[in-house]
Amino acid sequence: MAIRGTEIRIEGLSQRYPTRKVPTFNRVDLVSPPGEAMAIIGRSGCGKSTLLHILAGITKGTEGRVLLNGTVVNGPSPRWVMMFQAPHLYPWMTVTQNVGVGLTFARWGKKETEERVNDAIRLVELQDFAQANVQDLSGGQQQRVALARSLVMEPELLLLDEPFSALDAFTRAALQKDVRAISKRLGFNIVIVTHDIDEAVIVADRAVIMAGSPGDIVHEMDVDLPDPRDRTDPQVQQLRARLMATFQEAANYKKPEVALAGAGGR
Ligand SMILES: Nc1ncnc2c1ncn2[C@@H]1O[C@H](COP(=O)(O)OP(=O)(O)OP(=O)(O)O)[C@@H](O)[C@H]1O
């Protein structure tokens, strides 16, 4: 598989849902270099999923823009693919059929489809289940099928919206490690939205903390740890503790103009 990463450039991005008085977030700027795995963490409701949906081209921002290697994101594309908490597979199809569904829609030839699908299935280590019906697989295996279905498109960017939160801790940990390893082997970018500090530390090169209402990026922290990462490693635990402290600090975040207005009123 030949996958390369992309430069993600978010410029002055705002989102205000028509039914809401306050914007979800206001004038967010962010750059992620090719091949980076970036985690977006923040409390519920600060706009993480909305930001991810705009990156995926599923939702449109009300202001600003997103560029991937200079291309403005205006809609979905096989270059940027999204994985959700539920795998959303076709239950009547085999693993191979599910993984190949995007290539079938794109009218790829039989031989190329077979090669790409087999590569993707090998990457997620489901060779022994290639002809199994997806209904006969565990939750973790089904999420691996969803991952292979994303990888088969050879995306530059994989967007993950709390993709492993429905899985048990052991399966979740294995998938987190594997997603990072595969992204580093193939070179694509990851943006993962999560509530889980451990997940950010295991998967990401950089964690971005969102907080406030409207939401804002209030901190960024490099997750500068060697691979493979193990949560029992003291270095991993130390960084986790630092990130947790920063995350808790961010909970008290107020936009500067709000804080000043409060001080002036005393
Ligand atoms: N389609 C919509 N219409 C109106 N408001 C919305 C819509 N989608 C999200 N919101 C609101 O925008 C805000 C941000 O939602 P979003 O789902 O992006 O947050 P989040 O940080 O991902 O939360 P969570 O961690 O709980 O998934 C919330 O207040 C939510 O209620």
TrEMBL record:
So which residues are the signal peptide here?
Answer: none
Which keywords belong to this entry?
A: ATP-binding, Cell membrane, Membrane, Nucleotide-binding, Transport
Origin: domain of life:
Bacteria
GO MF annotation, one: ATP binding
Q: Where is the ABC transporter domain?
A: 8-239
Q: Which SMART domains match?
A: AAA
Pfam families documented for this protein: ABC_tran
Query: InterPro entries, alphabetically?
Result: AAA+_ATPase, ABC_transporter-like_ATP-bd, ABC_transporter-like_CS, ABC_transporter_ATP-bind, P-loop_NTPase
Family (UniProt): Belongs to the ABC transporter superfamily.
Query: This protein is called what?
Result: Putative ABC transporter subunit
